[in-house]
Structure formats: structure tokens, C-alpha cells
Fold each of these.
Amino acid sequence: MALIRLVFSICGKPMALRPYGRNISISSTCGTKASSLVYEQHGDPEKVVEKVSVDIPRALNLKDILVRLLVAPVNPADINTIQGTYGVSPPLPAVGGNEGVAEVIDVGDAVRFCRPGDRVIPAIPGCGTWRTHSIMFADQLRKVPDGVPDAEAAMVAVNACTAYRMLCDYELLKRDDVIMQNGANSGVGQNVIQIAREMGLLSINIVRDRDDMADLKRHLMALGANYVFTEDSFRKEGGAFFKNEKKLRPKLAFNCVGGKSSTELMRHLDDGGKMVTYGGMSRQPIIIPTGVMIFKRLKAEGFWMTKWNEANRDTDQQDIMFNTIFGLMKEGKLVAPPADRVPFSDYERAISAAVKPYTRKQLLVPDS
């Protein structure tokens, strides 16, 4: 199965993991250790993830690429996958992590698209990026252009691509149209703000209240947000806001929270508008008022980047998406969320922070 064709033979416990990857002998090695963060069962990530190490094989097959970790984020989807609550799960035992950027160390004789020193990202989900080194197949990787910062490259495949697709695929938006979103401080949310700005769109952004609300609002406005509300203020003031600003009725809303927050999005969509759900951080169901569905002809859909990739791998549409996003990153117009860089050996700290609310993005990086 392509999505889980992982190269576990240098990433974890070799005898247990080899059946799901390539059958590489680990007796002939170059002496370098590869460490991976592996879980053998679903559960609390702070308890079930452990670091395991094996030797890296000396020889590469024709289409193999040996890479070294540069940056790998710890995403909410990674945590949910380990917990067993995500929409897809690799065979166990598995290596954590869905995205990241790595440096090419060596390539097989038949590899042409990259060379040592280049940077690459996974071309398919489920590769297991939480590992210091990995041998990958050439068709599992995509080259990163020069000039794209490591942090941005590491988070392009999930956050930036999700934001891009939702802005492009659900409504025919034109300059000065309005979009609205909850969870605006999330990785996807911050990418939505920046890409919307470059498209000439106006954005209304809703976040959960917190102690550093003033700083967060300044940060989102600096990214290009036009309006920022807390959940409470939006419930209390949203009606009056849209009554006074009739031209700001959004055509499109993005929901990653669910529950009452998604209900508020639906209340304030323009006639014929659409809400796209890509997450459910509150773990509460979406409740849509009957009246808005009938009288405003609203629509609700879901989006999952993994499914989009399955249907569009190696297509012109996928190439255009990456080229556009990489171009914005090279120009400094699309920046990654603020993050803490955590040495790989201190992975427990990164995972512990990632499972808590209101924490910065955690990035695994090589030990010094």
C-alpha cells in the first residue's frame, strides 16, 4: 500500500519493523546510528512513544535516498494518530510524524532529481518523519527549492497546503471577498491569513480567549488579518458587527473547532455561503441551525489533505500548488508559525508540550 510503504529497517526495532518496509540487511553498516520515535500501540503519546536506534546500512539500492533530519514538527494530527483517533493509522509498530524537511546525504545510482546537499520533504503522508536518518524511495520525496527556510519547508505539506486548497477549491473568490475562520492562530489558520492576503481577500479571524490575547492579536494582524475576535466577543458582538458591515458577510468559512464555534460561523455566513470543516479541536459535534440551512441555503463540507493527495498525486494541480506556496515562502510572504526547536534526544519535552493547549508549535531538530 503506497501510503504506508515505510522504510522501517533503519528506523526502529529492525526485526519487528522490517515486514512493513524494505528487507535490508543491517549486518553491513557504516557505523552510524539512526534513531526513531516509535510507538507499538495506540495510547497516550507521552507513554507509548519511545526512541529506538539501529545502524544505517552501508549500501543503497538504485532508487534509494539516504536523508538526515533537519526539522520535523509535532502536529495535532501526529498526536491523534498515536492516540488512535485520527482518520488513518499505519500498521503498528510505527514511526511518528507526518511532515518535515531533511537533507540528502547519499543517493542510489538511478536517482536523478536530487543530489547530496539538497533538501527534500515527503511526497506522501505516513512516511514517519520523527527519525534522525532514513532511507527512502525516490518517489516518496519532493525536492525543496533553494531559498525556502527550513521551518517553512518542514510545515508546507499539511498546514500551508490545507490552507491553499480550502481557499482555492470551494468558492470562486475574487479580490475583496471575505472569508472567516475559527482556530485562526493554528498552523493552518495562520497560513489562511497570509495566503488570503496575497489573494486580495479580507479575513475575519476567531480565536479562543487567553492571557496573551493582545500579543496574539498583534501577531495575526501583522500576518495580514483584517479582523480578530475571541470566541466570546464574536458570540456577543458578531450580530452587530455584520449588521453594520453588510459588505463583510463571508462567502466561505473554515472550521477546525466544532461545537458552538462552528454554529456561530454558520450564523454569519452570507446567503449561499459554505463552511468547510477540517478539524474538531473541541471534540464537539457540529450543530447547524435549521433556519440558516433553509432560508440562507448554506452548505457544509469537509476537507482532509490526505484524501486530496491520494487523488492528486503527481498531477499538474499538485505541482502548481507547491510551486505557488514555495514561491511565497521564498519571498517571505508566507512564514511558519512561531515555534520551539527541541533537540531530538529531548523529544519527550516536545511531545509533552504538543498535547497541551495554548502552546507554540514544537519542532524536532538534530542534537547539536
Amino acid sequence: MSRQKKLPPVHEAWLPREHPLHRPRHGRRQLAALVCAVLFFTAPLVSWVFGARPAQLENRPLAAFPSVTDGWGFFTGMNAWATDHLPFRRQAVQSVDALSRGVFGEPARLDGGSHTSPVGAGQVDEKPQIDENVFPAVIEGKGGWLYLGHDVSYRCVPKRSLDEVIAGLRRWRQVVEASGRKFQLVVAPDKSTVYPENLPDAFAGEDCSAKAREEFWKRVPRETGALDMRGQLREVAARNQRPIYHDIDTHWTHEGGITMAYQLAERLEPGATRDWKVRPSRQYPHSADIPDLLGQDRTVPIQAYSLAPDGSDVDNTQFKPSDFHEPLHLESPPKPGMVTRPMRMVGDSFTQFASPYLAATFTDLTIVHPDQVAVDPEAAGRLLAEGEIVTFELSERFVAGGRYPMLDAAVADRAGAVLAAHPIR
């Protein structure tokens, strides 16, 4: 039997080049890839030192630098952080979009729904049958209308089934009401739900999103007690003879925010809005969120309003910009037409257009973002325990897509334990 040859006692990269077992440690392609990776991850840091600051292009905060305590999550989170913080990202997006339109005659598929809310404990994250990347970040509709692609992709590729979503919402109602508090749930409709007529004649996900939307609105208000504002929003728009959603922004106007304040107040104290006086006040430009995804900086005119709940000429609104990731507290002396019971609210970007009017009509109000509830359910429970009324405003696309981590029943149970320890007698 022939004797086996022993491998050299040194690494194969250190062998002479003419040796048959020589293998370079880094070939040219490997070296090029390594250099590109180093540049990709260090460019944000170097540009920051020289004064460049990243621009927020999407309707979400920039990805935070991952923590070393995240384990492997530190490495997987680096890609999102580096992508968000690349210098001149807006210019790159503009160039890619212009190239796509010039060569192929269609907008670039820039995002494709790859950014989602953080996954909470126990969140169902099954492999979808449809790849989210087939959906564009922006849907260009008729008459210059723009729609957020997530209106479609989140419905077509949900992270939770509708049954699980409904169970999560019902669990929140149970734990809040078990503590003696009043629970209100508002689902802010997507722009594509209120104004489907301005969508293009054909687009990716048209059939699956329409089917999911129909099932959502058929079941969720009935099975969770959610306030369905679709009819009221169209009525207000018809009365004012202008759309209640911006044509190039995904949110409703201030008129939508006022409509939500009206509906909440009437649900809690019927007749409370009888003497409310609403008048147009200032106008100001607002940076539209959807064009940002195309690298465009466009604004929409915002019409704000004054609101006097007692019917006087004294404006009671408070305009305090906030994304609610830090709880926003709004307090006002009681007047006729106001709800005086303290209200604690979970709300997202749609509530930003309602908060001035909620401040005018609720004497004691604190608002926190849904993501913060999942991050620290006990802290959320302590905040909600300060109120006699607990209100959730949640966006349709995130609810329909099961994208809120706080929909996990375990999150509701942890916050509910705090509420149960501080019941309303």
C-alpha cells in the first residue's frame, strides 16, 4: 500500500507559487470584494467626519448602528445602517431613477419593500410565497398621484395572518378593558383604500392587495370594534371639494386629523363636538414623503386650522412636532366641549396630523409610537396606566400586513400585567 503524502506544515498561501498546492490567500476578485466592503462600511463614518450628514429618504427613521450586544445581529444589522448612512444617497437614487426612465421608460424599482418594522418577540416571519422585491417602492398613479408601494406589498406579503392580527388587537382590548379603562381603536385607511380610482390601471400586486383589502375591512371593524373612518373621510372631502389625502404624500391632510378628533370625541362623549368651531389658520409647505423615495425633494401645501371646543374665537390647538418615539405630553385647561378624562394614546405618523386638534379637545393627553410599545411593554403599560382612556391609532398597511411587533399577544400581556396592577376603580 502506498504511503499517503503529508500536507505541508505551512498554510497553502505561504508555499512557493510553483508548488502544486499553492493557493493565494486573497485572489484578485477576493481582494477587490474586500476593498469594496471596507469602503461601503467606512464611507458613512469618513463622510460624517468631514461634515456630510445622511438624508432620510423614507417614511421611517434611519437605521441605527447595531449594538455589540445583539450577537450575530450586529453583523446582519450593519448592512441596513451602512445603506441608510451612505453619503450622497439621495443623488444616487435620483441618478438610478433617471437612468431607468431614460432607458427603460419606467421608474426604478428602488426599495421593493425591503425595509420593515423591527420584528418583535414571537413575531411570525414565515417565508412568503411572493418575493417582496417584485413590488416597487412607489406606485405612480393617474394625474400625478403617487402611492406608497407598501400599501400593496404589505397586504400581499403579510408577516401575520389576518386571524393573528385580529387576535392581537382583541387581546389589547381585553387587557385594557379588564383594568377598568375605556379602549378605542382607530385604523387610519391607506390612501390607496380611500382613493383607489387614482391608482394605475395595472400594477404589481393589484389582485392580491385588492382581495386582502376587502377582507380586512370586512372583518377588522366588526371583530375588533375598530373605528372605520372611510365614509367620514370621503364625506369631509366632498364637503370641502378637495381630497383629504395629499396627491404625493401617503398621509391624510389636517382635515383628516380633525375628522379623527371629531370621531373619537363623539364616541367617548356624544354631543361633545356640538359647539366646536373650526377655522382655517396658517398655511405652510410640508416635505412630501413619497417623492423622497425617488430622490426628489418636493413639498405639498398644508392648510392648518384653529379649533375652539367651546365655540369661542380662542384657538386651543397646540402644534408640537414629534414622531412619538419619545412620548409627547399635551395638556390644556378644561373648557366646555373638551374631554377631561386623561387619555393615553399609541399613534404613528397619521396622528402627527391630528395631534394639534387632539390637544385642543383633550385636557390630558400623551402619545407614544407603536414601535416603542414593543420595545418596552412594561414602560408602555406604565404610560397607559396614567390614563382612563386608551386609544390606538394604527395605519392600515401595517395592521393588514401584520407589521406591528406590538400585535404579538405576548406584548399585550406584558403591558396588561402593569395595567392590571393599577386598575381604574
